[in-house]
Design goal:
Small ribosomal subunit protein eS1; ribonucleoprotein; ribosomal protein; structural constituent of ribosome; Ribosomal_eS1_CS
Length: 218
């Protein structure tokens, strides 16, 4: 093969489909070009929740996934982060109101170590003592909630209020102290993944094992 032919071979790339593995499992996230499977591992994929739901109201939430497994032309990505759109964030922080940031950290019931940041804005400016009281109540609620939910349930609850009504419950706790205007998940970060293989990938592995006759013996 000539040197020019070798260069062309090196530059040839293939399209790989990207699927979510844990949060929104099985959801198609997009496609990407890569020269080989190994070059995909560790690559980040960013989508807005609107891309998944088609609802413009969800444009403010950005999700970041990281590819960790490739199988043929399919690649699987784990959720690593949720971020609130910066333009939207600036729009809800207004004069004569108070901004209260809440941070909680814990292990989800499926073993992921996460850190959660919530943003609360009040309808009027409040005293420092009121800010502290709201922050403590919201943090205590999140500290107790995180171990009760899987990673996907935590993300879904933060955005869709299902299965846990996080925003509604924080508002109920906060309004006893001061009127609240906005409650948003500013950031959710996975600090360390659990050991279990995501369900979508586990299903692919199990189905391949059965089809190849390598399943467990009865």
């Amino acid at each position: 093969m000539s040197s020019s032919g070798k260069k062309k071979a090196k530059r040839s790339k293939t399209w790989f489909q990207i699927y979510a593995a844990d949060v929104f499992p099985g959801q198609w996230l997009g496609e990407t070009l890569a020269s080989d499977q190994d070059s995909l591992i560790g690559r980040n994929v960013e989508v807005s929740v609107r891309d998944i739901t088609g609802d413009f109201a969800h444009e403010k939430y950005k999700l970041v996934f990281k590819i960790f497994r490739v199988d043929g032309s399919k690649s699987y990505a784990r959720f690593v982060k949720e971020l609130l759109n910066r333009d939207y964030l600036r729009s809800i922080i207004q004069r004569r109101t108070s901004r209260i940031d809440v941070m909680s950290e814990g292990i989800t019931k499926d073993g992921h170590h996460v850190r959660v940041f919530y943003l609360i804005t009040t309808a009027v400016r409040v005293r420092h003592s009121q800010e502290t009281a709201i922050r403590l109540r919201a943090k205590q609620y999140l500290d107790e909630l995180i171990p009760q939910l899987s990673l996907e349930e935590l993300v879904r609850s933060s955005i869709f209020e299902d299965p846990a009504k996080i925003n509604t419950n924080i508002q109920g706790l906060s309004t006893k102290i001061a009127p609240v205007k906005n409650i948003e998940p500013r950031k959710i970060v996975v600090l360390r993944f659990g050991e279990a293989l995501p369900e979508v990938v586990r299903g692919e592995v199990e189905s391949r094992s059965v089809s190849s006759g390598k399943g467990e013996e009865a």
